[in-house]
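[agent] plan:
  1. take the single chain provided in the ticket
  2. run structure prediction with default settings
  3. attach structure tokens to the ticket
  4. add a short note for the reviewer (M.T.)
[agent] executing step 1
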Amino acid sequence: MENIGIGVGIAALAFWGFVAAAVFAGVWDGIRKRDAQHETVRRLIESGQSVDQELLEKLSLVSDEGKRRPDRDFYLTGLWLLPVAPGLAIMAFFLGSINARALAPILGAAALVACLGIGYLVASKIVGRWYAADGDSAE
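[agent] step 2 finished; step 3 output follows
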């Protein structure tokens, strides 16, 4: 373990630096888009044009909480995750033929991904029932 060297530390630092940069870029992009929308509305007001509700909706400045449906988000996430599980299982069998010790951990990861996918589908049904109980349409 003492012979790992500095290269592994630099590689780990580079990986986590990339993850941090990706998160920062996503947040920065959201802030810049919101600023651009606010600037558009400010210029409309300064030019004397009326800013009505329809225009704000077109500019996406009005919160879309009424239109957002987490049950659909959960359902789509489940549909994305479920096909990954058999793919991981197939990969486990191929890698297991090369190194038998690789089979069990990758099959475990496949089972974990399958459980997550099923959990998201179940959460979708539960949250969908909340919307149905509140009288919202399924659109």
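[agent] step 4 note for reviewer: The two ends are 58 Å apart (CA to CA).
[agent] ticket updated
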